[in-house]
Amino acid sequence: MSDRKEDDAIEKTRDLRTAIPSVDIYENDNEILLYADMPGVKKEDLSINIDNGTLSLSGVRRFENKGVSRWEQFSDIEYARSFSVPQSIEVERVEAALKDGVLKLHLPKSEAAKPKMIKINAA
């Protein structure tokens, strides 16, 4: 049995496939850190939105095809995922970095949301 595609004139009719990226989420006193696995996504094809307590991530991985297709297992794909985030996140200070296919988001907490030590006064 041959796995090789015999027809060079393959018509591509499939829509962009969507996948849910794997994430790790950490929280400390100052921020929430989110790591999302989005291999092959370029910075210009990435969208990050926070609106009304919902964080939405979306990124498209596109392959440049040169020549006639003989074998295809990879295809263009859209990574998309949404999360509820606390209203205490300071949206203006959110930072994002994309490196080696991993998106890293820093979601800083507002001062009001940070834990505070209460000093006890002696009576």
UniProtKB/TrEMBL annotation:
Residues 14-123 form the SHSP domain. It comes from the Bacteria. InterPro entries: A-crystallin/Hsp20_dom, HSP20-like_chaperone, Small_HSP. Gene3D superfamilies: 2.60.40.790. SUPFAM superfamilies: HSP20-like chaperones. Pfam families: HSP20. Belongs to the small heat shock protein (HSP20) family. This is Hsp20/alpha crystallin family protein. It comes from Desulfobacter hydrogenophilus.
